[in-house]
Design a protein that fits this description.
Strand content: 5-15%
CATH topology of one domain: Rossmann fold
Helix content: 25-40%
Number of strands: 13
Keywords: Methyltransferase, mRNA capping, mRNA processing, Nucleus, RNA-binding, S-adenosyl-L-methionine, Transferase
Main location: nucleus
CATH architecture of one domain: 3-Layer(aba) Sandwich
Strand order of the largest sheet: 4-3-2-5-6-13-11
Shape: globular
Protein name: mRNA cap guanine-N(7) methyltransferase
Distance between the termini: 38 Å
Enzyme class: transferase
Radius of gyration: 22 Å
Number of helices: 21
Organism: Debaryomyces fabryi
Bound molecules: S-adenosylmethionine
Length: 523
């Protein structure tokens, strides 16, 4: 493609080399939802209860299995037990009961029970997370977490309905998102984030057509970037008898489900701290799930690409303070044995919340490295610390006194005076409030100094494979993806000059972000 500019490209008229799958690429999220009908012939995935409390039954707890001499298929498990996971009929049956998989789960052949010595410190050591995994599930963090939050912010979560100017969802007006969080200053980041995303999920149902959003193009651009990153870096399981599994940490409303179909995963696991988002993600998945999930190699080739041909499960939880088994096992007993290690961990637009404290980052990295198989990938998007540094060094503030940079679409307001050379020490807890019109309303985030993050990743056996800012990703990859991406998505990135990509205020707003990929070391 010759006429690509920074953040833009022209759409070729046709591409004869497009294969069937590419041509039939799924409808946009909106189309997909419109076309879909609930699948009444399949056993339902375990439903998240209406109040989102977790239905924990002792009879399904992993503790009950302790005499089974069950084996371990992931680094989360007890290394002394060697029986293959597929022999654990009891656990497998229990897992099937929840409808998340309809066939027995085969054990991975990778020697995950013999972790590379180099990584033993985080696989079994200092964080002692295996001990945590064996804790009785009746006292899970998820459970405690839900009880705790029952006392918090009920008003904040409900408030948005009353604040909406548009009462009639069929109105032509578009109501731009605004959150209403009381006493924000006195609240911790989790409370603010949860309330914010709960409100956003609720309001989005009443805002009007998303094509009218002031950031419609920007959203399409960001979605295109995620298609590209996942498309290039999700590595299918090398064992044809194993499902390809993606763990979507901080999954939000399930906005990346389409992308998971795009990369043909077999199983999706989504976790988010916002219960409203998880409910929405679950309902989106249920509406669009294929009638029959392909089980054989041949049927996988014939996927109905307008629907989700993968199994999925969703859970509410704090990915930065709890271990993955603590979050998942109470809802899906046996899931760790059955589906872990996974092939990909996706972490989109969320890690900046973890950089509040070093402990949170360590918990997150423990979760990631323990979840991934060797050769599996961590794929993420975060604000660029280089971009932030440039703004500081060049004093490119729109409000010097309030330490604020940005434009009419987005803004960053530092909590304290940033260091004049733009290098934050210590690297954690360097807060700023972020706003993005119609999406994020003055929510605290934390600078992610990328080199610090990269160094920590190496300690956890994750090596950097790719890092680029969004504009460069788009420019370099979009020629390959024009024919693959949905037409509406592409058209939704059309610029005023007829080319495709970001321009003006949007271009600076998307330029704030980078995409990265790490690979888990080992054999
Ligand atoms: C900007 S949204 C991104 C959602 C989704 N990944 C996407 O790309 O569309 C950030 C998400 O991170 C979630 N989040 C923030 N802190 C979290 C935590 N500690 N544990 C789990 N989810 C968290 C929020 O609830 C929100 O859904």
């Amino acid at each position: 493609m010759s006429n690509i500019e920074a953040g833009s490209a022209s759409l070729p008229d046709s591409n004869p080399s497009v294969n069937k799958d590419e041509k039939e690429l799924k409808s946009t999220e909106e189309n997909l939802e419109q076309e879909s009908k609930p699948d009444i012939n399949k056993p339902p995935i375990k439903k998240i209860k209406a109040d989102d409390s977790i239905d924990i039954s002792d009879s399904f707890s992993r503790r009950e299995n302790k005499d089974n001499n069950n084996s371990i298929s992931s680094v989360y498990n007890d290394e002394n037990k060697k029986t293959p996971a597929w022999m654990k009929s009891k656990t497998t049956d229990k897992y099937d009961k929840y409808g998340s998989r309809s066939t027995p789960i085969a054990a991975p052949t990778a020697p995950v029970n013999n972790p590379d010595e180099r990584y033993s410190k985080y696989m079994t050591g200092s964080l002692n997370s295996n001990d945590r995994v064996r804790r009785p599930p009746t006292e899970t963090t998820v459970n405690r977490y839900d009880k705790k939050r029952a006392h918090e912010e009920v008003d904040d979560d409900v408030a948005p309905y009353s604040n909406l100017a548009v009462a009639n969802p069929s109105s032509n007006l578009y109501q731009t998102f605004q959150s209403h969080i009381n006493n924000k200053e006195s609240k911790d980041i989790n409370s603010i984030v949860r309330s914010h995303y709960n409100q956003r999920t609720q309001q989005s149902k009443f805002q009007g057509s998303r094509t009218k959003s002031p950031i419609y193009k920007l959203r399409n651009f960001n979605n295109a970037i995620k298609y590209i990153l996942l498309g290039n870096w999700v590595k299918h399981n090398p064992d044809p008898n194993r499902p390809t599994v993606i763990l979507d940490l901080c999954c939000g409303k399930g906005g990346d489900l389409n992308k998971c179909e795009f990369v043909s995963v077999d199983q999706y696991i989504g976790i988010d701290i916002s219960d409203a988002s998880i409910k929405e993600a679950f309902s989106r998945y249920s509406r669009n799930k294929a009638r029959f999930i392909p089980q054989t190699a041949q049927s996988k080739k014939e996927r109905d690409t307008r629907r989700y041909n993968f199994e999925a499960c969703f859970a509410t939880g704090d990915c930065f303070s709890s271990s993955i088994p603590e979050i998942l096992e109470p809802n899906f007993p046996g899931i760790i044995d059955g589906l872990f290690p996974v092939d990909c961990v996706s972490l989109q637009f969320a890690m900046h919340y973890a950089f509040e404290t070093e402990e949170k980052v360590h918990q997150l990295l423990t979760n990631i490295t323990k979840s991934l198989r060797a050769g599996g990938t961590l794929i993420g998007t975060i604000p660029s610390s280089d971009f932030i540094k440039d703004k500081i060094v060049n004093r490119a503030f729109i409000d010097e006194e309030n330490r604020k940079f940005g434009n009419d679409l987005y803004s960053v307001t530092f909590h304290k005076d940033p260091p004049s050379e733009g290098v934050f020490r210590p690297p954690f807890g360097n807060g700023y409030n972020y706003s993005l019109k119609d999406a994020i309303d003055d929510v605290p985030e934390y600078v992610v100094p990328f080199e610090v993050f990269r160094g920590l990743c190496e300690e956890y056996g994750l090596v950097l494979k790719y890092k680029k800012n969004f504009i460069d990703i788009f420019n370099q990859e979009i020629p390959k993806y024009f024919s693959k991406l949905n037409k509406n998505l592409i058209e939704g990135m059309k610029r005023s000059d007829g080319k495709y990509g970001a321009e003006g205020l949007e271009k600076e707003a998307v330029g704030f972000y980078i995409g990265f990929v790490f690979e888990k070391l080992g054999n």
